Amino acid sequence: MFRQSKRRVANRRNFGDQVSRTPGKFILNGITSEEEKQLYQSLYESKLSFYEVPPKGEITLEQFELWAIDRLKVLLEIESCVQRNKTAKEIEIIVKPLLQKLLPFTTEDLQDRKKDYYSHFILRLCFCRSKELREKFIRSETMLLKLRFNMMTSRDQAKFVQTLNLPFLQFISDEEKEQLSTQLYQTISSSLQFQLNLTDETARRQYFEQEKFIKLPFESVIELVGARQVFIKKGYAYLPQFQQLNHIANEFANMLSLALTKTYQTIPRLNEDDRLLPILHHLSTGYTITNFQQHDQFGQASQGEINAKSVYSSAIQENFPLCAKNLMSGLKENHHLRYQGRQQLSFFLKGIGMDVDEALQFWSDAFTSGGQMTQEKFNKEYRYNFRHNYGLEGNRINYKPWDCRTILSRPRPSRGEYHGCPYRDWNVDKLTLELSQGMSLNPSQVTSVLDSVQRTEYTIACTKVFEMTHGGSANTEINDQSHIAHPNLYYERSRQLQKKAGAAIK
């Protein structure tokens, strides 16, 4: 055992002494702050990077994990928006505050650039392990590149394009543009109108006169060819400069795909480093964006309004997610819940602001009101359990409300049980009936939710239901993360919107 540990430490030291010798670039371990500054100035000649050179410097394990988590929060939010069919503009509105908070890229700060660079490569290690993970990572990173590109000034965009040195990214001459002017204008006129909002013919003509065109093989922008948005001649597509991002994004996706395959081939070298593998496994198995920094916010929307009586009111229960409504329905019907259901509902009620005294009163009333259980039996068999959930018995742990990932990891409910996630556990007929009648969704909305359920994207389905029952994307006013992966987060947003609507009526 001692020899094995010693060998691992020796291997880490040997790995740390390596030097990356890429033509024109030297990335060393233990570099000085000035050398590090020059390094990231070369990697970020503009405000964006294609991440072509892997980092070899030193960071702490804490930075390794936290930087990756922050980037993953952004990518998960982007993935959620895409799955909910948000437009590019809506995605930008939702993701922009999250980017400014977690991955700022418009500053010259060395630490921000270092975090951006390392976090990208760390997530490569996480998401290179299967075809599905690779495709998901490429899709999200490419969308992130597009969002950042559109957030830059035109000057910064031009500077970024110049640093890429991509093949075929060459502008045609004025003479060639003049020869093809009629065909080029006819092809891009509709794009100028609908993408750039140039509704006036004169304005479109003036824009066309100033616009430059790129000539490249048509397969490089195949999606634009299919949509008839580029002019094709002799196998070449003539791409207007305002659409160059499509070509840049395709080149980035192709580069990243090859890089992820190479990364997967080198993964076995990490098998001796027992510090990194648990972190990488944790991140790649679907880390949820609510695991950090949100538990402290729970309960603020109600602020002491939740007690043993008020929790039954329609004003409170209409803010419950479907899983909590199902638990409350089962409790009311049976005057009892089995262990998993008691735990899930108890933690949820704790999270929305029910204190321990009110919780004991709530559960006592619920269990004894049906006449099947005496107060003495409740005190003997159940009181300790609920006090334990509040950290007043046993090891006195302050348990947190269960997030969706925890709920989905628990055993599925059997007959007579009500815990779990209805989007996963209910059959199609039961779920359809509840969505259409209980939540008043129209047929197309129900179909959209069921599509997500069929793809096992249960938190996406729940987020869709929230938006459909709360006026579209109005929830973005409350939080800079629109994806809902926690029942208590669903309640908090719903309750805040409810109060806001009530204040507006008054």
UniProtKB/TrEMBL annotation:
Q: Which UniProt keywords apply?
A: 4Fe-4S, DNA replication, DNA-binding, Iron, Iron-sulfur, Metal-binding, Primosome
**GO molecular function list:** 4 iron, 4 sulfur cluster binding; DNA binding; metal ion binding
Instruction: Provide a GO biological process annotation.
Output: DNA replication, synthesis of primer
Residue ranges annotated for the DNA primase large subunit C-terminal domain, each copy included: 316-491
**Cofactor comment text:** Binds 1 [4Fe-4S] cluster.
Question: Which cofactor(s) does the record list?
Answer: [4Fe-4S] cluster
Q: Pfam families in the record, alphabetically?
A: DNA_primase_lrg (PF04104), DNA_primase_lrg_N (PF26466)
| UniProt cross-references to InterPro entries, sorted A to Z | DNA_primase_C, DNA_primase_lsu_euk, DNA_primase_lsu_euk/arc
Tell me which GO cellular component terms the UniProt record holds: alpha DNA polymerase:primase complex
> The organism sits in which domain of life?
Eukaryota
Q: Which residues bind [4Fe-4S] cluster?
A: 323, 404, 421, 462
Similarity comment: Belongs to the eukaryotic-type primase large subunit family.
In UniProt terms, what function does this protein have? DNA primase is the polymerase that synthesizes small RNA primers for the Okazaki fragments made during discontinuous DNA replication.
What is this protein called in UniProt? DNA primase large subunit
Name the source organism: Lachancea thermotolerans (strain ATCC 56472 / CBS 6340 / NRRL Y-8284) (Yeast)
